[in-house]
Amino acid sequence: MKIGIDKIGFYSPHVYVDMEKLAEARGVEPAKFTIGIGQSQMAIAPITQDSVTLAANAALQIIDEEDREKIDFVIFCSESGIDHSKSGGVYVHQLLGLNPHARAVELKQACYAATAGIQMAKGHIALNPESKVLVLGTDIARYGLNTPGESTQGAGAVAMIISANPHVMELEQHNVYLTNDIMDFWRPIYSDKAFVDGKFSNEQYILFFNKVWEVYKEKSGLELKDMEAICYHLPYTKMGLKALRTVLDEASEEVQERLLKNYQTSTIYNRNVGNIYTGSLYLSLLSLLENADLEDGSRIGMFSYGSGAVGEFFTGVLQLNYRDYLIKESHQQLFNKREEVTVEKYEEIFEDVLPADGSDIELDISKDPATICLSGVVDNKRQYVNKNR
């Protein structure tokens, strides 16, 4: 039985800041941001959007009434959770009006969690072939204003429906994964901003990729020539390229050119959204599928990495007429309707946060075009609104 991605969609907030203008405001050569790390725009989450609303808005694009009935498992994957106890998946389940006879949980392992969610979903579908699973990778990357990590912030979510006989991509076996207890990136419970050892994290990312790739080749019998493209977790778009370059000499010049070309295509969306942690790898996959001319049956390699650290390499095969099940026009409209804000306005939005003491607050959602928004906090309970209900 084939199991894989039946539908995939994403959502990003309606405002962004231009990276060249941010560089100038920070006294940095713009090329350091646009070429050095490979970022052009950075999505900004207004106070009316959090990891729950981003996930729900992403899912809203792809689910229909049949999905609402058949989805019996919601896997919410995030390192930007809004509650230490209650799963963000429970909120999303209600906001989308899903079948009440469903499970809803939240997974956490830095940027790797959505991959763990997909593997969990595969097991569920294997036991329940008529079911569907909604996997959500949703995050807001925050490092702080005027910090070394500021240029790698971002906000957004990717939603995927995992099912039997998928329309977009069959997920193959031969997964190879690796765990090691390191401190390259972390966010203690008491902090709303992450801590990162950038140089160390970059080194570990590449080391993890090299290790799982070597084992994957032995386990699967496949090589670079068997991949039409490789997508990577992208904290910034140059990161995956650094890893890819470490193995390119294993392939012919023709294969190298193909992989490099498709890699650049896979970074288009990420370059204009920024880092969305758990969703970054799958935003890269979506960028590739919607902007490259790949043949049905093409094999795509995927490297998932979550600091702390867990890494995994796995592959998927594009299904017959997979393009018919993508929603590229909707995603293009999402980008086209976004509003650029000044650096000053970005800083104002960044500093506009919910009360840390749980005080009641009412938020103005009229300026947020998203269907699902956070409208305030009452009695320490976040208040969500689906404008279509």
From TrEMBL:
GO terms for biological process: acetyl-CoA metabolic process. Keywords: Transferase. Residues 256-351 form the Hydroxymethylglutaryl-coenzyme A synthase C-terminal domain. The active site is at residues 79, 111, 233. Residues 2-165 form the Hydroxymethylglutaryl-coenzyme A synthase N-terminal domain. One of its GO terms (molecular function) is hydroxymethylglutaryl-CoA synthase activity. (3S)-3-hydroxy-3-methylglutaryl-CoA binds at residues 143, 242, 275. It comes from the Bacteria. Belongs to the thiolase-like superfamily. HMG-CoA synthase family. This is Hydroxymethylglutaryl-CoA synthase. It comes from Ornithinibacillus halotolerans.
